[in-house]
Amino acid sequence: MTTLAARGLVCRHGPRTVLSAIDLAFTAEVTALVGPNGSGKTTLMRHLAGLDRAAAGRVEFDGRPLESLGAGQRARAIAYLPQAASVYWPLSGADLVALGRVPHGADLGRPLSPVDAGAVRRALERVDGVAFADRTVDTLSQGERARLMMARLLATEASVVLADEPVASLDPAYALEAMAVLRSEAARGASVVVVLHDLGLAARFADRVVVLADGKSVADGPPAHALDPGVIDAAYGVDFRTVTIDGVVQPIAWSSRQ
Q: Is CATH 3.40.50.300 correct for 4-87+157-256?
């Protein structure tokens, strides 16, 4: 079982400390990172992906410093979907998804191997994106492109899946489908970490929720524990109420404290 971990992680943007002494380990489950704007969620994701260097502490992959992995090995092991991911070339939908196979040796200038083509096809099917395979991405809506970006993530077939706000531009039906897909990734053994602003989705789909506030982890545990109003009221500066739907406690922002 793959473990990705932050050990005493301190992250700074210039003179400002964004994350302070973060100790978190992620295994084969869905972990939702939640918290107010500026709490360090994206910063943490970028460090977990190995894109930024920490001021102190380190990220470990199966007990090894992440930077000890070669670039290719890391790209195969960790699939990262950044917030508001953009596409700057008029690629076809299938070619966009096939970028997820580049760490495995795929060359978009040549026909894909049967293994790579199969991974692309399965990824498109899982996001209901087969109809977009032959369309160029500049002809698609933002939500349709977001589904293809999710498919690219899936096509990597990585043991760690990092998704930063993957449902932000999706309508409710596809947001639910995207979260179900991420749960299926954890079911196959992947460590899934997802940044969410929708606390209802976190409560329903995550096995574990980490609440970040002021650069620190202020709660970490099952959704019912981490999303307790006593915790998130203070983190968000909002009074929350809860409703229970099909046995799942759903937090609802009710009134501002400002």
A: yes
